[in-house]
Amino acid sequence: MKTGVTGATGQLGRIVIEKLKERVSSESIVALVRTPQKAVDLGVETREFDYSKPDNLAIALKGIDSLLLISSNEIGQRARQHKNVIEAAKGAGVKWIVYTSILHADTSTLSLAGEHLATEAALKESGIQYTVLRNGWYTENYTRSVQGAIAAGAFLGSAGDGQISSAARADYAEAAAVVLTGLNHQGKIYELAGDEAYTLTDLAAEISKQTGKELPYKNLPEIEYAGILKSIGMPEGYANAIAGWDISASRGDLFDNAHQLSRLIGRPTTPLAKVVGISLTKPS
Ligand SMILES: NC(=O)c1ccc[n+]([C@@H]2O[C@H](COP(=O)([O-])OP(=O)(O)OC[C@H]3O[C@@H](n4cnc5c(N)ncnc54)[C@H](OP(=O)(O)O)[C@@H]3O)[C@@H](O)[C@H]2O)c1
Question: Rounded to whole angstroms, how far apart are CA atoms 204 and 55?
Answer without folding.
Answer: 48
